[in-house]
Structure formats: C-alpha cells, structure tokens
Amino acid sequence: MTADPADLLTLAEKTAREAGDLVRDRREAVERMAVAGTKSTPTDVVTESDTAAEALIRSRLFAARPDDGFVGEEDGVVLGSTGVDWVVDPIDGTVNYLYGIPQYAVSIAAQVDGVVRAGVVHNPASGETWTAVLGGGALLDGRPVRVSACTSLSLALVGTGFGYDAARRSRQAAVLLEIVPIVRDIRRAGAAALDLCAVASGRLDAYYERGLNPWDLAAGGLIAAEAGAVVGGLHGAPAGNDLAMAATPGVAAELTALLERLGADHD
Ligand code: IPD
Ligand code: CA
Ligand code: CA
Ligand code: CA
C-alpha cells in the first residue's frame, strides 16, 4: 500500500471535511450543546459530537487503509502494520464548540515511520482548510501561506493556551503574567491546531503552550513549520507535551530565551 504523503493528504482532507460537516451540522441543529461527560478534570469536557466525529474519521480511514495505525483523542490507539499512523483530533477546541464560538477544527495528520508527513486542519465554521506535506510548503484553501515578518517580541502578537489541570494552569498564569507586559498582546483563542495555523498565516507572530498531546500538535505543527515557523520545545527539545512553541524566525530566539528563563516547560 502506498505511503505517498500526497495520497495520504488527499484522504485526510476529504475525511476532515466530512467530519467537519458532521460536527458543524450537529452544532447548528441545537441552540445549546450538551456536555456528554468529563475526562481528566471537570473542565475537560467531551460532547457526543467529539466521539461521533472520531468514529466517522476512524471508519473512513480504515475503510481506505485497513492496516494503518490510529491515535485519536477520544478512543485511543490502534496499532498498525504499514508504518503509517493517523493522529486525529476530531474536534480541537471543544469548549469553543460547546459555546457556539466558531473557532474549532478537525485535525488529521499522517505519520510515516514516526515522522509527520502530511496534515490537514479544517475549521468547518469558517470553511478554512490548512494543509501541508513535508517539504512542500503550507497552504490555506490551496494558496501558499507564510509566517509574519515580525522581528521583535515587543511587537509580537502571541497566542497561548491552558491545559485542563488546575495546578498547571496556576503555573501557566504565572508565566503569562511575565509575558503580557512585554509583547504587543496575547490571544487565547481556544484551539491549539488553529493557533498553529494562525502562526502559519501570520495571524499570530508566535504561539506557545505546555501540555499539548500529539493530536493537538501533529498536523498544525507541520503546517506551521512548512510556512516557515520555528517549531520546537525548550533546551533543544522537539515540540511536545513539555512545551510546544511555533514562532516566526524573527522572534523565535527571543521567545525561547524568555520561556527558558521563566521555566515555562516545568510545573
Ligand atoms: C484543547 C484546545 C485548547 C488547548 C488545550 C487542548 P481540545 O484541545 O486545543 O486550545 O489550550 O490544551 O487540550 O480538548 O479542545 O481538543
Ligand atoms: Ca485538542
Ligand atoms: Ca479534541
Ligand atoms: Ca478534549
């Protein structure tokens, strides 16, 4: 079976659009969306749309490629045998979705032998779709996107996010307290995959967050990097659970130094 990233992207994009239609239609059908349950903490909510979308994505990907692996936020891991693993966030930005804020996305990435080679982030509420194949640049609705030309943290619009754990949030707030006075402004838009795409499109100059999971980061991280962002963690680590940062090259070193000084990758 082919592992051509362009073919994987075609399947991912078609599937993300179908899942996006499903979740958007379900959201538009009700005035108030119900919480179906909570996960790690009472603030970590899940709706029936999260699980329905993941089930749809899983069934479409396995119908096309039955022997691949799968990592999804809601239903866990399926081991595959082809070297291709799908990393899926069925709704990134569930709290926005719950409240009817049109800032949520379906995120699907294809990893080949552990390396993310193709990714799509689709916002069904705005209709915007970011895509990337490793080495091929990043696109928004088929047109190339590029990071901003910002060269100073003092002029940077910086996105961030908070996890669902209260103790970690306190620490994240303390770090933020130091950052707010020295940047242009801060945004907490509520969907990590879209934050990474915002960096790719120059709508943010930088973004950082501690505590992300692979499904938050896989597709958006590739898209940001392919648009020219510096994507990584602190102290030379790759972007991951300890810290994920994506920044236009002109502010990456300054932001990294600041986050390292503040110990942003520690609770
Ligand atoms: C969350 C969102 C949020 C980020 C959290 C994520 P979910 O994902 O991306 O912006 O701050 O860290 O867990 O739960 O809505 O898929
Ligand atoms: Ca997520
Ligand atoms: Ca999610
Ligand atoms: Ca979630």
Automatic annotation (TrEMBL):
Catalyzed reaction equations = L-histidinol phosphate + H2O = L-histidinol + phosphate; a myo-inositol phosphate + H2O = myo-inositol + phosphate
Q: What residues does Mg(2+) bind to?
A: E73, D89, I91, D92, D216
Q: Which residues cross the membrane?
A: none
User: So, what pathway does this thing act in?
Assistant: Amino-acid biosynthesis; L-histidine biosynthesis; L-histidine from 5-phospho-alpha-D-ribose 1-diphosphate: step 8/9
Return the EC number: 3.1.3.25
Show the Gene3D superfamilies listed in the entry.
3.40.190.80, Fructose-1,6-Bisphosphatase, subunit A, domain 1 (3.30.540.10)
Pfam families recorded for this chain?
Inositol_P
Any single biological process term in GO:
inositol metabolic process
Domain of life here?
Answer: Bacteria
List cofactor names only: Mg(2+)
- Example GO molecular function: metal ion binding
Write out the entry's keywords from A to Z: Hydrolase, Magnesium, Metal-binding
Functionally, this protein is described as follows:
Catalyzes the dephosphorylation of histidinol-phosphate to histidinol, the direct precursor of histidine.
Q: Which family does it belong to?
A: Belongs to the inositol monophosphatase superfamily.
Q: Identify this protein by name.
A: Inositol-1-monophosphatase
This protein's species is: Jiangella alkaliphila
* Lineage per the UniProt record: Bacteria, Bacillati, Actinomycetota, Actinomycetes, Jiangellales
